[in-house]
Design brief:
It comes from Kibdelosporangium banguiense. This is GNAT superfamily N-acetyltransferase. The chain is α+β, with helices and mostly antiparallel strands. The chain has a single domain (about 1-190, about 240), classed as Aminopeptidase (3-Layer(aba) Sandwich). The protein has seven helices and nine strands, in the order βααββαβαβααβαβββ. It has helices at about 15, 40-45, 80-95, 120-130, 155-160, 170-180, 195-205, and strands spanning about 1-5, 50-55, 55-65, 100-110, 140, 180-195, 210-215, 220-225, 230-240. A hairpin with a 2-residue loop joins β2 (about 50-55) and β3. It is globular. The two termini are about 25 Å apart.
């Protein structure tokens, strides 16, 4: 396996994006998700779009954005997690502000290659890229994989569960922990997405009813109102920091 980036292999972009999504397509329907387009990565963050290949075929991708944190006006990681990290990166790019940290946005593995332990090398490659480009830390708004099975459990209760061996119970949180990452805080509003009932049916295939709606790929319910014709999804994540 070899890990390259979009800057050196722009020809692999479409194949890398076709590997799938984190949780589902709906994740990218929020205002922040719409900001991280392929064209913007090509123009601004091509070195932080990593692609694992075998026989010149993409089998995994890792997307990240550089940003300024900590900074005078950013002493703490945001409660709005993934959403606000993307906004910080865009603001810094527009303002010409020098970044000092790298924020991982997603790691996606080809379904045919899952179970091979590819997530860890992709995270290590992000850490290496951060170091190579003069950044001082790698932060991640982690979306715990197993939370899809327990969408109604509060994130603090879920994220802090540990196995008998002392490691974190969720396997994606545990992957980060095994690489030395530490939990910093829960970000309760990491991803916020709103839309009409028709929008949500298009994005998820689910017909929403009044109140809380559990749906495939979600780690929290969609709160819907049929009378007002909207559904709002607020996803909590877990901020973790990797040592450099």
């Amino acid at each position: 396996m070899e890990i390259v980036d979009l800057a050196s292999r722009p020809d692999l972009a479409d194949a890398a994006l076709n590997l799938g999504d984190v949780g589902g397509e709906f994740i990218y329907r929020g205002s922040s998700g719409k900001m991280i387009t392929l064209e913007r990565f090509r123009q601004h963050w091509a070195r932080y779009f990593l692609i694992a290949i075998e026989d010149d075929v993409p089998i995994a991708r890792a997307l990240s954005v550089p940003l300024a944190y900590p900074a005078e006006d950013r002493p703490e990681l945001p409660d709005h997690g993934w959403d606000e990290a993307i906004q910080w990166a865009a603001q810094d790019k527009m303002d010409g502000r020098a970044p000092n940290a790298l924020c991982a946005l997603e790691v996606v593995i080809n379904p045919d290659h899952r179970g091979r332990g590819l997530s860890a090398p992709m995270l290590k490659a992000l850490k290496a890229r951060a170091a190579e480009t003069g950044l001082q830390k790698l932060i991640v708004s982690v979306r715990p994989i197993g939370k899809e099975q327990e969408p109604e459990v509060p994130m603090p209760d879920y994220a802090n569960r540990r196995r008998d061996d002392g490691l974190l119970a969720d396997r994606w949180l545990r992957t980060h922990e095994r690489l030395g990452a530490k939990i910093l805080k829960i970000c309760p509003f990491a991803v916020t997405i709103s839309g009409s009932l028709a929008d949500w049916r298009d994005w998820t295939g689910v017909k929403l009813a009044d109140g809380d709606n559990i749906f495939p790929g979600g780690i929290a319910p969609i709160i819907a109102s049929v009378e007002r014709d909207y559904g709002v999804y607020v996803e909590p994540n877990v901020w973790m920091e990797h040592p450099m």
